[in-house]
Amino acid sequence: MDAVRVEVPVRATEDPEKVREAVMNVFPDLEIEGDEGFLKGEGNIESLSELREALERRRIRLTARGILLKNMRGKSTRIYINKQAALINRINVLEEPITALGDIMVEIESDDLMGIIDWLAPDVSGEMDESVG
Predict the structure, then answer these.
(1) pLDDT, tens digit, for every residue of 66-116?
(2) Where does residue 103 fall: left (phi above 0), alpha (psi -120 to 50 degrees), or beta otherwise?
(3) How far apart are CA 47 and CA 4, in angstroms?
(4) What's the pLDDT band for 36 if we cut at 50, 70, 90?
(5) CATH architecture of the region 3-120
(6) Which of 9, 99, 112, 115 has the most CB atoms lying inside 10 A of its own CB?
(7) Helix crossing, 61-70 with 113-120: angle to 10°?
(8) 3-class DSSP state for residue 129?
């Protein structure tokens, strides 16, 4: 079973449509629903395609890979994406939520979790043009 779950808080001071836009910039095919101060969505591994491309464009695949590996728990892992950066089509990955407004939590569950991590954020440590951090 492969599943992707996305959850992001919507603070009272935020425009819910701007938060939705931030999520849709990273996950354009995800069905997003509002619920008690949160936006939530579920999808499959293909839902990660835009994130995968953004990690490559920003040359942060190794950073993302390290976070995904560190956060592995059984058949799942998670990574956080800075909400404000996502709103302007930038990807900043985080190990845990750190911003006051909250970050986009991405949880991945799979029977082949390492295969998904290898696809999403391959080990490119041998490539000269990608740096860690």
Answers:
(1) 999 999 999 999 999 999 999 999 999 999 988 888 999 999 999 999 999
(2) beta
(3) 7
(4) confident
(5) 2-Layer Sandwich (3.30)
(6) 9
(7) 160
(8) coil
Q: Contact at 8 Å (CB) between 106 and 97?
A: no
- C-alpha distance across the termini of the chain, in Å: 31
Q: How many CB atoms lie within 10 A of CB 18?
A: 12
Whole-number Å distance between alpha carbons of 29 and 70:
27
CA–CA distance, 116 with 3 (Å, rounded to integer): 11
What amino acid occupies position 96? Answer: E
| CB distance 110 to 2 below 8 Å | yes
